[in-house]
Write a structure and sequence with these properties.
This protein has about 280 residues and is α/β, with parallel strands linked by helices. The protein has one domain: 3-Layer(aba) Sandwich (Rossmann fold). About 30% of the residues lie in helices and about 25% in strands. The protein has eight helices and nine strands. The protein has a five-stranded mixed barrel, surrounded by four helices. Helix 1 packs across helix 3. The model has no long low-confidence stretch (mean pLDDT about 90). It binds hypoxanthine. Hypoxanthine (HPA) binds next to strand 5, strand 8 and strand 9.
Length: about 280
């Protein structure tokens, strides 16, 4: 049996397990990034469990990713939220990294909100800024759609002219205005990691049009687009790269800055979700 077939059977098994616990279909999926697991306080939780207790679920090996699934509601919306994601740099395959997205797809999720921590490349950015992702550059060397295509999941060659939903991005910017939070907009470069960027790589990333860099999100977005989801991506800029005056980026400072930005991310998500009408 090929990897896709195995993955598909596992997705169905996992989705059935979750469905049994909840009895309704979540329309909105949320995946939180490094240090941002606490941004989900507004959700009225009806079911939660650790990834290790979900059949077939990979387990997050990164400390700043709690590894918890939360099902609940916010206003009238049913939500499935995941505190912690899987990364290529942990050794997971693109199919494993995007497994949660496929489970969301199987459960009926139509809107996907992804958050992450990212290094800032745009000199106008400061640590703690929130960037609405308007586009990405996949530099991981991987793609979750490589290999046989399952037509029931999506088309062979998905269009990528608008992977991030324009209306959701605008809604986030407006939410920022209402909450007094300045939102930057920019292009996210997705790398494999886990080694951070050299000054020469930073120069390269700036030259090709990236405003922020990180080790996540692009695989999930590609799978989400393939699944027909509308996607909002929010990056917390945790550190700034200046290739002409390089300074080391410490992971505990990155996690700390992401944690401090959690209330801002939460306020924006709350407003965006509030305005979704489906
Ligand atoms: N590089 C990659 N990932 C990151 C960074 C960075 O500088 N900061 C936060 N996540």
């Amino acid at each position: 049996m090929n990897n896709l077939k195995i993955s598909k059977e596992r997705v169905q098994e996992t989705a059935s397990f979750i469905k049994k616990q909840i009895g309704h279909s979540p329309a909105i999926g949320i995946l939180t990034g490094t240090g941002l697991g606490e941004s989900l306080q507004s959700i009225k939780i009806s079911f939660s469990c650790e990834y290790k207790d979900i059949p077939n679920f990979p387990v997050s090996t990164v400390k700043s990713h709690p590894g918890r699934l939360l099902i609940g509601s916010f206003q009238e919306h049913n939500i499935m939220a995941m505190q912690g994601r899987f990364h290529l740099y942990e050794g997971y395959s693109p199919l494993e990294v995007t497994f949660p997205i496929r489970v969301m797809q199987a459960l009926g999720v139509k809107i996907l909100i992804l958050t992450n921590a990212a290094g800032g490349l745009n000199p106008a950015f400061s640590p703690g800024d929130i960037m609405v992702i308007i586009d990405h550059i996949n530099l991981t060397g991987h793609n979750p759609l490589a290999g046989p295509n399952d037509d029931s999941w999506g088309v062979r060659f998905p269009d990528m002219t608008a992977p991030y939903d324009y209306k959701l991005a605008e809604s986030a910017v407006n939410a920022g205005k209402e909450e007094g939070i300045l939102l930057q907009k920019g292009v996210y470069a997705g790398l494999m990691g886990p080694s951070l960027e050299t000054p020469a790589e930073v120069r390269f990333l700036k030259t090709i049009g990236a405003d922020a860099v990180g080790f996540s999100t692009v695989q999930e977005v590609i799978a989400g687009v393939h699944a027909g989801m509308k996607i909002l991506g929010l990056s917390v800029i945790t550190n700034i790269h200046n290739p002409d005056n390089p300074s080391p980026s410490a992971i505990n400072e990155i996690i700390d800055t992401a944690g401090k930005a959690t209330p801002k991310i939460e306020a924006i998500m709350r407003k965006v979700i509030d305005k979704i009408d489906e």
